[in-house]
Structure prediction request, 171 residues.
Amino acid sequence: MGTERYIRGIMEPNVILLQKSSLPSVSFYQNLERCQAIRKIVFVEGQNVPPDIDIDGRDPNCSHLLLLIGKKPAGTLRMRKTSEGTKLERVSILKEFRGCNYGKLLIQCALALSDLPVYIHAQVQSEGFYKTLGFQETDPTIFYEANIPHKTMHWSGTSIGVLPCNITRLS
Prediction:
């Protein structure tokens, strides 16, 4: 069984929305740690991002999506309000779950939950992926975050979509 069972889609994906509240629950912080553990594997270990860049102190004040396949954490992303709109960041899928459209699922969930406008600082290597989801390059300038080339992309939709799956909400 193992990972093959998950990848073949036998287990339904479960998406958990973590939202900050005035009194965040223990469950919020436990699941936030799961999000950070995924990011550590993907960014710190996989892309040599310094830990203090990934864990920047903003997590408790942001919303997060945590993707579980069965009971196993598989991916995450962070949604943060800025003066420019809703910024999607820290999009990460563990290697064993890539190629299964889970990144697309997380982005679609985030778009359905976000206020317009929505934008992302996309790694240049992932630009094509974001284009397939309706993001457009708004400036051809390449800039570096954590020594990785990025471009700013905005979601070109005029309205937020429909949730592609059920979401469990935690605060």
Notes: The two ends are 34 Å apart (CA to CA).
